[in-house]
Structures are given as C-alpha cells and as structure tokens.
Amino acid sequence: MLQKYLSQEKIAWFSIVIAILGIFIPMLTIDYNTASKEMVYTIGFIKYIFQSIHLTIFNLEDFYTFKLGTGDGMYMHYNLLNAFFYVLLILGAVFYLRSKAKETRLLRFVYSVIFITKVSSFILGLFSIVLMENTTNSLGVFLYVLWFMDYVVMAFYAYLAFSILKYIEMGKTFETIERTYETHTSVTLVEAGRWRRFFHLIIDDFIMILVFSASFEFFIRTEKLQTFVSALQNGLGDRVAFIIIFAFFRVFYYAIFESVLGVTAAKMLTETRVTDEEGNKPPVSSILKRTFLRLVPFEALTFFTPSGLHDKWSETYVIKEQRTGVSGAWYLLIVPVTIVVGLLIAFGIYKYESLQAEKKEQAIIQQNKEVFAHKLKNLSTNDFIKLESLDYAKSDIYLKTEEIKSDGIVFLILDAQKDYSEAKGPNFNEYSVPDFLEKIYAIEKESAKKVTISKGQLEKAIELNAGYSYSNQDTENALNIGDGKKYSIKSIETYFMPRLTLIDNYSNDKIKNVIVTNEGWKAELIKISNAQLYSGQPPIPLYKQSQAVITIPQAENYKFQITIKDTLGRIFSYEISKEKELEAVIKRTK
C-alpha cells in the first residue's frame, strides 16, 4: 500500500508541486504548422500527465476560459476552473503543513475532486475504446503507446488521491457527546445539522457538473450512443432524457464516493462521513440504496426534517468528525469567497477580452475605410465596384467605371447573374470563365444601363460597408442605381492588368512568409524592397494564378514594397503592410 510511504511533509510538498505544474504546464505551446504529428501528440501527453484536474462546464467555455497570446496572432485557451482548484490545493497544502497536519479540509476536498475526476476519466476512456470506430491512424503503434500511458497516469492519480485521503483519514475520529447517568455513561455520535447537509447538496452538485460535463458531452455526441439518446428524446422528450442522463451521473458520483471513501467532496469540507448506526462504514447495499433514494423527486427537501429520506430508509447517518483544525464556520467561507473572487476575475477577463475584441473590430473597420478611401481616391476606368444589397438578397451587381468627371463618376451597371448561355454557352459564368467581368463588360459596354454617382455618395456608401450594421438611418447613405434597391460597397477591384492578392502565412519564430498571388494579367516581379524572395532573385514571372513567396523577419508589424511589369510594359508599384493583429493589406502606390 502506498500509504505506508506517505508522510505529512511529502503530501504537502507534492501537492504544491503538482499544483504549480498544473497552473503553468497548460501554457506550454507548440507551432502546429511545423511540428510533426508525433511531437504534437507528445506535447499533448506531457500537458495531460502534469495536469491532475480536468474540469469543464458544458457549453459555457467562454465564461471560464480566456485566450493567452502565443505570438503571431496565435492563441491558447486557459482553463480558469482548473487554476482555481490548483490554488485551493496550494492553500490546503500550506494550511496542512503549518498546522502540523491538523487542518485538512481544503487538502481533502481537492484530492477528492482529483479522485473522482480520474476515476470518471478512466471509465470514460474505456468506453471510448469500446465505441471507437475502426479507423486507421498514421501514427500507428506510437498513438497506442500514448493511449496506454494515458490510462496508466489516470490510474496512478486516482490511486494516489485515494491513498492520500485514506492516510489523512487515519488521523480522524468522530465527534461524540458523553452523557453520564446514575449507572453508566452514554457516548453518542454527533450527526451533521440540516444546514450543513444543504451545503453538501449545493457543493456536491456543483462538483458533479464540473467533473461530468466532459463525460456528458461524450455521451450525447458519440455516434454509437446517439441512437440511444435519440430514442430517449423521441420517446420521453428532451427534458426527461436530460434528467435520466443527469441521474445516471448523479448515481455514479455518490456510489463511487460513498462506497469507496465513505464521503463526498462536500463532506471533506465539513469534516463529516457516512456511517451506519455504530459509526462503521455501511455495506455497499446500503450505499446503493441511499444513492438511488436521492433520485426521488423533492427528496432534497427532506434535509429539513429530523432525518433525510435517503438516510432513514437506508439506515445510514452523516456523522461529524472531530475537528482538529481551525474552529468556526468562517473557514468554510474560503471556498465560496475564492469562487466569488475567481468569478469576478473571470468576469474582468471576459470584459477585458470583450473590450479588446471591440477595439480590434473598430481597428478593422478603420482599416477597411482607409483601404476603400485609398482605392476611391485612385479610382480609374479599370476599376469594378461590387455592390451588396442591404436587404441581404443575393446579388452580383458591379459598377464598371466609365468616366470620371468633376461633378460625378459615370458607371456601367453589370449583372454577373445574367444568363449568357444562349450567346456564350451553358458554362459561361463567373465560376467557370477566367476574367469573367472583363468578358461580360466587352459584351455589355454598348447596351448596359449607366448611372452617375458623386464621390460624396461613394464615400458614404464606404462608411456603410465598413461597419456592417445597418439601420433605417444608415440606409439613407446607401447607393441607389435605379432598380429600387439599396446597396453598400462590398469591394473595389482593378481589372485589365495584373491583380495581386495576399496570404499572410506564418512560418516560424524567425521568419514570416507572405504569399503574393496574381489573379489578373501575366506580369513579372522586377523589384523587392525591405524583403526578399523565399528562393531566387528578381525578376521572376507572375503568371495568372501563380505565386511569389516573399520572406521577411518575424514581427507583428511589417512593411515592404514590390514592383511589377505587365506584358504591355506598364510598371506598377505596391506597398504591402501589416499592423499587429490586423489583416495584411496591399496598396498600389504607382
């Protein structure tokens, strides 16, 4: 038995070490773009074995996780629930050590959570093996070795937590009341009061949700179990099906805890234990009867009677242990106060993230405005403006710039959804024909309707586009081209020349690759300033849909210039830049 190798100091220092590892190991990151599959799985395994607690709340991840930046716009999600329990473990270990093993409540509470977490994870893991589809995996034996080691680690943590809890329990005795009569002295065990029992209900249900949320998600989403879940939902309704699944986990929680340890997580906090009338551990049959009686509707309300229903009918009792640590109920406030503080911190982080997201959104909107303003300022007769209907109806309306006057700009209205099959064949559409807009312009330029729009109207429509939030007031700034609909500007693209687009591609800690794609006419890249080609030297050809990979030092912000020449001998200069988390943009400067 492991218990004979344990000591107060070993338990305390081991608890502090695994808590610190649990807090900081999740911050270990890896470049998933360059790492091998074996490395990704190995890092995942290392992170797993050094995290003794894995808690979640189903569908509420946004409220207890926050994003930590790992560089280059990449993030990892940090679980605050786990961190909260690791902090409790450190506090419990310090109290245990400073009190010379007299103050045990927090330490026992956290180890009980570790115990039930690992037991449930182990059983869930076995279920996942049984229910796993027959699929091949490129990692082969390596993955199965990691799986086996996972289960070994889970079993080790469960056994270690069990051993520590039993070691601490050896120093515990029951609280008793002695009554002296004329002929004898009576010693009576002290039962837990009704408010303490109500506290058990609240805390145990909370812990149960944290522990089994992942299992619940597995239960309802695993393909081979969905038939059973669907049958429950169809036959009994969603609510009853949920209650049945919840009842299953509730039975599991109490049956495992009280049959193996004689306590639950909440009872560790209040130093109480389930016993029979004589203070001995009840038989498993009594524990099971007690557990299933908890499923009786409104049974929890019987706590406020002299004896709870599941106590009375199972002939079990919840007895107080002799307190050896800090006296007074104020100690129990450590957990709820820590929870409140944790929730306030989480709320603060959530609000901070919301403000940062809003700030980023505003920066993106401003960036869009600047890009549109630059394109509008340099508008030419090679530009097509794509419109977006404000009534969300699908439309492919383009405005081809025809003439730029001082009092307005004349546009030709083109409908890319128009059926050209009779004249050009069934496959003549924007998805099948290269440079489709150029070709339909050649067809329509003599007959299509024209519209004149002032630069002021275009600028207002750009403002409307940047925010993507439309109201009755906003639509006053929308474009009207005479078809009764209102439009914003979705994009401005230049045709009849090379047309460059960007992919900001992360590479590693030292360099970044920016991929420039030519979606227009054939050209030649003749010059690069403040950057260099990934391979080779200018000049290099830029055929239609070909790419040039440009390498720059790794940084959040960058700016460089390129120059190209098309087949007509025209020279075009561009500035490519990126600011922090915003998208990289390309602007034609000449």
Automatic annotation (TrEMBL):
Recorded topology in the membrane: Multi-pass membrane protein
Organism domain of life: Bacteria
Segments crossing the lipid bilayer: 12-32, 78-97, 109-129, 141-162, 198-220, 240-263, 329-350
Chief location bin: membrane
One cellular component (GO) term of this entry: membrane
Name of a matching Pfam family: RDD
Domain RDD: 192-346
Record key words, sorted: Membrane, Transmembrane, Transmembrane helix
Protein location: Membrane
Protein name, per record: RDD family protein
Organism per entry: Flavobacterium lindanitolerans
